[in-house]
Each structure stands twice: as structure tokens, then as C-alpha cells.
Amino acid sequence: MYVLTIDQRNSRTSTDLVPDLLARSERKWPGIVAGSSKTRLAGEGEGEGEGRRGVVLGVERTVGDEVQGVLDDPRLVVEVVLTVLRWGGWSVGVGCGPVDEPLPPSTRAGSGAGFVLARDAVEAAKSRQRVVPLAVRGAHHDAGLDAEAVLMLAAATAARRSAAGWEAIDAVEQAGPDARQEDVAARMGVSQQAVSQRLRTALWQEELAARRAAARLLDLAQG
């Protein structure tokens, strides 16, 4: 299992951003927020209800300006981590390990190694010495650190990406995996060569490869 603990940075000098984070997350990944009509309740089978695949316990505010959720799909973990870091303003901790079962209805009542590791991770992510406010801690310690390193590199690369690069990436993602660059270019009102150049400069294919590697390492980090 993967426990995500996400804490607002500089919360003492800024407004409460948790409602906005939850709203944006639900728009991006329908069913990921606790209480959503698409969130599967703990204990329900894969075929029951309309729960989002990969979400075990929906993300919710736990205490203060912190949110937490439990996922079981490393690819979704990677996507959530990198997207939240792109949005900015958050320290992200990922704990990879077992959780006590049966699971409670809320992460606030959750326990087990995964929750302890996530707490250690988010505290490490808050360090001012970190360029990227992210940490991963795993039952398999070295695999967790390796996953963290790959995710940090991907996030640091994304942080240096231009607006034009993000525009092309967002357009490609919205178009879907089977879309052609020609179709994306037409929607953007630019040439196919321009889209291709923006994606190359943005190191998009390299990030996709890093995401796959990070997901495999997160899987190993569960122990």
C-alpha cells in the first residue's frame, strides 16, 4: 500500500489551501477524494460501486492543513505526486508498506507501517535543504530512497519547464494516448513540428520513462 501525506507549506503566513487542493484533485482524478460519489468505501470489492481504481481510502483533511489518502497503484501515486508538486505549495510524503486491516472508513483512523513511513516521509520533505519538497520512505528502505531520487529528478526537471512546454504536454495528455501530434497541433493552432520541438525541449519522453521507473521502484519499496 501507499500512504500519501501532503502538508501545506508556509501555512502560518498563507490562507488555508486544503479545500482548493481537494477540489483540484477531484477534478483531475474523479473519485480520489473521500466522500466523493465515485470513491469506493474500504472493504468494497473491485466490482462494487463506482470507486476509482487505485484508491483504497480517499484523500481527506486529517489535521490542520494536512491531507492524507491510501492508494494501491504505484502509477497513480507517481501521477499524484508529480502533479501536486507542479501545483506548488505542498510538502509530499509517501509511505510504502503494509497497513493494518481491516481498513477503517477514514485515513484518520488508519494505522500500520505505511502510515508511520508516510509520517517520516512528510517530515523529511519539509526540510529547507530539499530543492524538491518530497520524500519517500519504504518498508524496503533502499528501494524507497531510489524511488525518491527518480521522482525528485522528474519533479526538478518539470519545475524548469517553460510555459510553452507545459502547453504542449497538457494538450497531448488531454488528447489521449492514441492522438496524433498532427491533431494536437491543429487544436493548438501551431505546426506539428512546433509541438514536437516543444515536447523534446520539455524532456517529456524522458519524464515518461522516469515515471515508469519510479512506479517500479515504489512497488519494490513496499517490501
Describe the model:
It is a single chain. 48% of the residues lie in helices and 15% in strands. It is an alpha+beta fold and 223 residues long. Helix 3 links the parallel strand 4 and strand 5. Helix 4 packs antiparallel against helix 8 and helix 5 packs across helix 6. The radius of gyration is 18 Å and the shape is globular. The protein starts with a strand and ends with a helix. About 2% of the residues have low confidence.
Q: What proportion of the residues form beta strands (DSSP E)?
A: 15-25%
What structural category arises from helix and sheet content? alpha+beta
- Give the ordered list of helices and strands: EHEEHEHEHHHHH
Total strands: 5
Distance between the termini: 10 Å
Shape: globular
Largest sheet report: 5 strands, mixed
Compute the CA-based radius of gyration.
18 Å
Q: Helix count, per DSSP? A: 8
Percent of residues in helices: 40-55%
- Provide the low-confidence segments as ranges: 46-50
User: Order of strands across the biggest sheet?
Assistant: 2-3-1-4-5
